[in-house]
Amino acid sequence: MESKTTAHIISHSHWDREWYMSFEKHRYYLVKLMDTLIDLFEKGEDFQSFHLDGQTIILEDYFQIRPDKKEIVKKLIQEKKLHIGPWYVLQDAFLTSSEANVRNMLYGLQDAKEYGAVSKLGYFPDTFGIYGQAPQLLLQADIKTAAFGRGVKPTGFNNMVSDTKTFESPYSELKWESPDGSAVLGVLFANWYSNGNEVPVDKESAKTYWETKLADAKKYSSTPHLLFMNGCDHQPVQVDIGEAIKVAEELFPDTTFIHSSFDEYLEALQHSLPEQLQTVTGELRNQLTDGWSTLVNTASARIYLKQMNQESQTLLEKVAEPLSVFSYLLGHEYPRDYLRYAWKTLMENHPHDSICGCSVDEVHREMVTRFEKVQQTAETIIEEKANEVVSHISTKQSGIDEDMIPVVVFNTSGNTRDVVIEKEVELEKVYFSEMPFSEIPDFLRSKDLPSIHLVDKNGTEHVCKTEDLGIRFGYDLPEDGFRRPYYARTIKLTFLAESLPGYGYKTYYIKLATETNLNEQPSINRGAHEMENEYVHLLIHENGSYTLTDKQTGKTFEGLGIYENSGDIGNEYMFRKPNGEVPLTTKDLKAEIRVVEDHSLRSVIELVHEWEIPKEADEQFQQEKERLVWHKDRQSGRSSENVTIRLTTHIQLDQKAKGPSVKVTIENQAKDHRLRVLFPTNLTTNEHYADSIFEVVKRPNTPEREWENPSFDHHQQAFVSVTDGKHGMTIANKGLHEYEILEEQQTIAVTILRSTSELGDWGLFPTPEAQCIGTYQAEWMVIPHEGTVVESEAFKEAYDFQVPVIAVQTDVHEGILPTEKTFFTWEGKSLAISSIKLAEERDDVIARWFNTSEKETMIIAQPMQGTTSYKSTIIESVKEQYENTQIQEKVKPFEIISLGWQVKE
Question: Beta strand pairing status for 5-11 and 225-230?
Fold first, then answer.
């Protein structure tokens, strides 16, 4: 092992794209930084290298202002002076979906390829915890090292390092291993990513500086190669770093000082590592800390952003991309450029200070606009691609009359589903070109509404419900002519679509007649307080809680759905309950209960709570914020003045649903508080499961011995689940990323609203809009099941809860496709399908799964058409060719597997 110490000084600036200032204000200083860098590199040899924070979006932001600098920057990147990638943005790892994490890498690497070089380092400098499958993703991208600032050693206020009673690793270098066994070298910024910031040129100051800095770095390093990060958040470039290095060399002749890069540092590090390094497995979530600086409660700051993000991600990866693949297989164009635009716009909201909701209000207002742009783009793609597929379906069948109205129902979740559909159907429309537009509404109203029957291609009638929506305005946009406005007589049609094929569709027909509908079947509703289908029975109590019985196993869960309210004297980063506070609940609050929908397809019962809670925190809270008292040390409480918040809860049970779905509308007038919904399971267990990035992760119910924070909150994606091995309960959600398992009755507590007043961190940044005053909603589903969420495959129901079903009205026409079809068949026990899309740089179908189980399984998969097939990496490079287009492949425990098909010669 080498004995002489080498100080690797890496110049960088951690560039939060938006945070304590708006994006445009931050960009103003980014342009100054980039201009300075270009000048420095052009002047000579004293400035060797700059790490551009691992994110390629910085270049796009810069070139929007300085388009003339693109070739100069490209040359600097190729000369290995500017180091970019591998990410598009520095995303929050836990609050963005599995596919969003992959696309972040795909687009980052794709952008870097344009410039000619990429930094092959898994760079997570300030990520608020990292998912356990990151090493597997990195290795599949041929990235063998990860650098991170959080998750293994504790960091406190202003990111000061403190020692713990036990260490996950004695060194800042460690082996980081995913659940599947994939492992990378991990480099922890043990003294933060600013430990080499503002190096003095003055000799006296430099001597003091380096004596301290060298000792601090040696404390954690396993090799003589010490890493010093010369920069910090939005730090201007230290232009005299070359001179500062010369001074250091004079003062410390036994140490070699170099203006280094990560490429050089990692190369040297690899040759000097000890034979044995500590192995850290799975998630990096600051488990062995006091729990006060995990930043986990960013999962509940501004929940409305998380909900918009979940909807946007789902529309892109679970609807728009599959439909675009189906359409492509039929000869239509794959909208790769538009999907890339939508994904990149979405990922502008994925940096950790953005999606985490821990920025100033201006930042998050702009995020809402971006989400709306993504949703508008995705919805347009979905509409066009669904219609393209429908145009190929032969809806003209024997026994089908020309005046029937076909409705094609698409299921893009990848799993077979039974879904109650609501679809607005235009029974008759009259174009403005056909009569004076002012006369059309009365003309349509003058006609009696016919009796509606729903049949399939065989003429078998299905139960349906209709609601007259009256006269609606609409318009067509022909590809070969001017827009065509019309009025239409419109109904809402509700029916059960059974056994919808995964990645496929089924066609139904509306038949207009004069006779009455099919005889009514028994209602799901059993009275004002009770509902039941073949899977579950619900009994709703006076306080709005409910007892749920799993009819498959006979297991009963009681007291579900109570709301809990606590004061919050924390900030956007961390929840902090006032000392000694006992949370309020709706346990003793009577709810107004009424039935709002009641038939054989669906039952909906409404609960209304008028709940008095404290108006805000007390007067001391403002003083503590102004004094920058750390959230852990605050002593304030809640106001003695109350306000009323109104909770309107709709509990819905559909025919064939495995459990009830719930939507609550919160009319919030209170500040500084957190609202949760509680699900006591009364199941005896020390651990639970949660959906994470390409993993159904198992976590302990209680923290490690170092943990001091009274709260033990966690991140989730689509669900959290508790089981005793025999019975289980899974709570699925839409954009509700924070939960806790309470020791009493092993209760699942899911956060549905959090109101906070400040950003927190290094200064006083008021965020009045983070109080979320106004009307907000939250949605979840309760799924009882046998065994674990994995063994029972209840995870499929939880994932499908997030995926909308698309129904398209069409006409009777000829086509090449049958009335029911799947475009992609697959099967595999314990496998969750993540995506199906076309590859980024070739027209191959790529599908991806992950094994939710600790057991090996088998995947069998085949698209509608294909010429060759192969196993792919996460970045869509070919790994292994197959002989047949139907692939049968073993999938290791917890493996992420991507398969590819060339579908056209």
Answer: parallel
